[in-house]
Amino acid sequence: MTLRAGREREEAVVVGAGPNGLAAAVTLARGGLRVTVFEAADEIGGGVRSGELSVPGVLFDHCSSTHVMGAGSPYLRTLDLAAHGLEWRWPEIDLAHPVDGGQAGALYRSVGRTAHALGADGPAWRRMFGPLAADAEVLTDAVMRPLVTVPRHPFQLARFGLHALQPATLVARRFRTEAGRGLFGGVAAHLFGPLTRPVTASVGVMIIAAGHRYGWPVAKGGSRAIADALAALLVAEGGRIETGVRIRSLDQLPPAATVLLDLAPAAAAAVIGDRLPPRVRRAYTRYRHAPGAFKLDLAVEGGIPWRAEACRRAGTVHLGGGFEQIAYAEHEVYRGRMPQRPFLLVSQSYLADAGRSAGEIHPVSAYAHVPHGYRGDATAAMLAQFERFAPGTRERIVAATATTTADLERGNANLVGGDIIGGANIPLQLTMRPRIALDPYRTGVPGVYLCSASTPPGAGAHGMSGHNAARSALRALGLDR
User: Fold this and answer.
1) Among 96, 253, 304, 441, which one has the highest count of C-beta atoms within 10 angstroms of its own C-beta?
2) Residue 168 forms part of a structural domain
3) Where are the transmembrane segments (predicted)?
């Protein structure tokens, strides 16, 4: 590949058409470059693809369904994606977390309504998340940029840091009821790791604060609508996308002024080859991936018969029991052991987007946290968790589709070992990923950048990793505005 400059409109190439690759491409196109995106799969979207899996007319998301940070993305909010078909839909209750005994904590977009529903834990919830929700727009803008930048709102960021730097176990002590502690613990478990270490409260605190500001929406017509809208915007800006093209080397690419790789670090190292500086190669090949996910997509007649009423109206349900049970399961998974009662994230997207159902048959998707590269079948353990909080679930299942960690990686090479969050959220990688560098998107090869979820700010259909990397590329070309 020859990197060149001096043309009236330079060429740019993006490898990978997930939300980060597409966001990067749109940013580059708007910066004045002629952009081509190459995607290995036959369809775009990466982690935001959708389709029928079993029953005709029942629509499932292949990976992510609920998009708290997508709706709150500082970059996506600047784009008129609605003009290209993206419409957010919200359920009545954003999240429910059932505990044994038929009770459940419920998270609403309103802090006040959530606090009221939590009863004895309401005042503590309001004190903690009221100010953070009010600052959510400032916080998302700050934490979804590289952390080496100078914060524009240091006071608000410091207030967030007072909570975020703590272990999730310590923050959970602020809540006295099983429902309140479980509600926080289930969101904290999005970290995919032990909840006893410093900084492990950060993910839960940020998602809850953002959720109170933006809600937990789904995209009408499936998560693929996010990719479709970004692709349509890119084409309108003069870009193009080629699917079914697997890039194994930079030598396959046409001459370009800049190249962005929406790839996992090890895959990026393979594509860049001998051009990659040894120190960067070591960082990329030693990059630590997170535990895996085992996915179960259920076509359910009449929906899940939850004991707790809040679960029947919630777009997302977390299954794991009390905080201590969640913490134990997450610790076991992180250590490579499959727990008997895994933590589950359940999506009932049809409650916000009725068009995903076929009559009374509804799509219900669940992820279980499992060890990295887990080779077993988690179906029985997952269904047992459903039955624990919704007896009679099995009798309502019309069809079930299981997706193993290996299946996830085959469908999307970035999901290494079933890792759906782009890398382990250990303290160093939470702040410096994929390597220690002032500009984490630079690969050390002039004109070549990494823009996947393995770069800041990490997982989510927010496009910020791609946008941030594209901004870095444009600065190097003297085109950043």
Assistant:
1) 96
2) yes
3) none
